[in-house]
Amino acid sequence: MDRSTVELVGLITANSRAVAYDLVEPLLRVLMTCHSTFGGDLEKAMIMMAITVRSSRHPDFRKLDDERAGALAVLPGYGTNMRSVAESIGMPKETVRRKVQQLLDAGWIARSGTHLCYSVEGYNAVEPVRNMVTQMYARGYGVVGALARAAVPN
Question: CB 3.0-4.6 Å disulfide test: which of 8, 43, 44, 113 passes with 38?
Answer without folding.
Answer: 44
